Amino acid sequence: MKLIESPVLEEHKAMLAQEFVLRQRADIVHALCRSGSSEYLESVLDILLSQEQLTWEDYQNILVPGRSLHTNARQLLDLVFSKGVETCLHLTAALKQVLPKLTGAQSIEITNEERATTSTHALVTQRARLVRELKDSLDGLLDALVASGHFSSVDCDEVNLPIRTPLQQVRTLLDLVLAKGEDAAHVVVKYAQQQQTSSLLVNESELRFPKEFSRYQKKLSSSVLAQSSFVGTYGGGSIMRLDDIYTEGQLELPQDLSETSSTSVTLEDIVGEVGTVNTEADTVLLSGYAGSGKSTLLQRMHLLWARGAALQDFLLLFPFSCRRLNSEQRELSVIDLLFQHCCWPDRDKDEIFQFILDHPHLIIFTFDGLDELKDTFSDEQRICCPTQCASVPIILFNLLQGCLMKGVLKIVSSRPQAVSPALKKHLRKEVILKGFSPSSIDSFVRKHHNDATVAVKVLQSVKTNSALLGLCHSPVLCWIVSQCHKELLDSYEESPKTITHAYLMILQHFFQRQGSANTDDGLSWMLQHHTTILHLGQLASEGINCSVYVFSQADLNKCGVTEMDVGSGFLMQSKSMSSNHINMFEFLHVTIQCFFAAAFIVLSTTIEHCTIPRLFKTQDPKMTPFGSTCFHGCLSSSEQQQKLLDDRDTTEAKHQNMQITAMFLCGLLSQRHQCLWFQCCSSSNIVKRAKLVTKCLSKALQKHFKSIPQPVQGEKKSMHAMPGFVWLIKCIYEMQENTVAKDAMSKMDVQHLKLTYCNIGPVECTALAYVLQHLKNPVGLQLDYNSVGDVGIEQLLPCLHICQSLYLRNNNISDEGISKLITKGILCFLTTNLLITA
Ligand code: ADP
Fold this sequence. Notes:
Blueprint: H1 7-23, H2 25-33, H3 39-50, H4 56-62, H5 69-83, H6 85-98, H7 119-125, H8 127-134, H9 138-147, H10 153-159, H11 166-180, H12 182-195, H13 199-205, H14 213-228, E1 230-231, E2 240-241, H15 242-245, E3 251-252, E4 283-287, H16 294-307, E5 316-321, H17 322-326, H18 334-341, H19 349-358, E6 363-368, H20 392-401, E7 409-414, H21 421-424, E8 427-433, H22 438-448, H23 452-464, H24 466-471, H25 475-483, H26 485-489, H27 499-513, H28 522-545, H29 553-558, H30 563-567, E9 571-573, E10 585-587, H31 590-603, H32 611-615, H33 637-648, H34 652-668, H35 671-678, H36 683-706, E11 718-720, H37 725-735, H38 738-746, E12 752-754, H39 762-772, E13 779-782, H40 789-796, E14 803-807, H41 815-832, E15 835-837
Parallel strand pairs: 4-7, 4-8, 5-6, 6-7, 11-12, 12-13, 13-14, 14-15
Antiparallel strand pairs: 1-2, 3-8, 9-10
Helix pairs in contact: 1-6, 2-5, 3-6, 3-8, 7-12, 8-11, 10-11, 11-12, 14-16, 22-23, 22-25, 25-27, 28-31, 31-34, 34-37, 35-36, 36-37, 37-39, 39-40, 40-41
The structure holds adenosine-5'-diphosphate.
């Protein structure tokens, strides 16, 4: 079938092209300049010259020597735009040819006729192809021109000037030939025909690989493959292939006020142009809360790259873990960092590094867990030389800013709160990982269980408890729930609806798996294993206090962690940090470390009185919760000094971990779970600590409410949730005590509660509804720009009667969710005049 293009359609395409040049200006400039060399720009100019869309004068006005590449590229766009739609159309076609990955240019096409009538005409109209094809046979062509008497040695010297790149040498040659006339041009055309080089082969030969490059690439990719093939978190020594369990999570771009719906992206989009806000920057931030799957997603990217299944525009991928970088005490250069921390080249180290420097756009670095880095990002100390040594954080910060290895794409993962405005300035874009969608939960559970009937039962059980379904949106909780399917399906056990309950379930599950007999009775397993909990708890809490997530055998010994304790499965050997002689350990997940830290506060007889109050004052990240630390004993005096320095810079990860620990503490000391501890601790101590927690929580909330400004006369008293409000609400939910919730709400005297952009997902909705339903007076609840979803809607229903208005714009709610909301909303409308905006 032939598509006949009408003049109207052609005109439409041309207009689209002009709009494309205008709207995508930033992307085009970035794409033309991202390699740092003028090659892309010059190639586009070749094409436009050959199509007579640009004149020599235009060409010279654009390629002004000594001016920045970006300015030259912008000059091109200005000129093309001013020439009108026709030239814009040719530009988009040229961009498509030179930069096939530039989004948008593909949809605008023109037919490029290359009908040359004379050799000089051919030199102009086929300039772009000739430049590419003649680059590697320039000497032969010069010989041919000298032999035919058209070129002198002066001409040859002019072409061969060492300041010119090989492609520029060909361009100079063509310019000289054009000036010499038709006969000289004929020699070139004939020579080019003789070469008969396919453009494909020429494209490949444009990259001059060092001899050892392919061997190095293979070594790197097999090391990345080995590191990324298995998931470590399965605990107790069990191993799972990433391929068998990996489930797509929800990846989104940050929601912009001007947009009406959230923008979802794919794994490949992380490295693509989509969502770019700063075309000059090379760093992509992958953000998400603890357990949302950031490390797993990066691991997936590594695996796909190493296997050749994705990210194939990048020839080398260097994966880094910030946990591991924390332990690097030496000053290093970038070259040391790449080769010593990722993969050592057996030969030609310098050539391989030079190739990396020359082709930054073919290289990608990933840094997992930036929030766990002990130093806070700073752009004060600049380093631009890749062989200069400095401390690892300084090298890392310079890489992220692009002072070092400009053009190399860097992906960093972090919890969102840990990204400072100083770092934000240097971000190319941000991609947010929002955990699992309802369909990912389904697919994860099915992958987890080989037996389909078990999977169906687990899913049924999860779906009948909507609070549990909410929890499963977090991949780490989905993993826990799937692991504990037996406990979940036991009819006599109430299925969990709090995060603490889910973690207690995995605690019991691992201990039972360790093979202890007589553990059916919920109390006896705790009695049997409380010393293990105490040992691991001490290790966990000391670790969180010092921002330590990887532990040596000496650290374990110091806290009394025995081999049997390790055998319980909550610690795993750190793959990246262990060597032949030294074993290093880490908790299966940072939230499990927090859980043990909370259990330690419950069980320990030695904690200081101020430990609990300090934990609830963590709105100030500089507070240290666990008082004096026995962990110092594990450190040498110079390390202690370093630690004192580090303490001044309490990491955001530590602050977050303290909040998670506080939340677990609320759950562990709740009336529902208190009895667990009675067998191994004095009950009066437990009750005392529970009361203290309640008091601290109430105080923290009061402090929060006191900061609400008085309303302007005639307006409603409104509260925009401060950071920490949602955390406190979740703490109350973990306690599951109506009196605590009632007491908290009796002090919240507002008519409008604004929680826009607060990362409210289904779990947060459950907690909010639980607490808000105790409000005395109706409130307006503004939840725009969150991730409530249909499951979250269901969670909110219990507090609908107390809502005067409910704003839910941009929350991934389907028609089904809306209809549930309306059904319940109609009933509430009759009582409170509820107004819903979604
Ligand atoms: P984060 O780095 O955000 O804290 P992780 O990637 O460590 O989260 O995820 C915690 C656990 O959740 C993983 O160890 C794994 O068991 C599970 N998980 C996370 N993401 C996925 C995924 N996409 N597919 C399957 N399991 C996942």
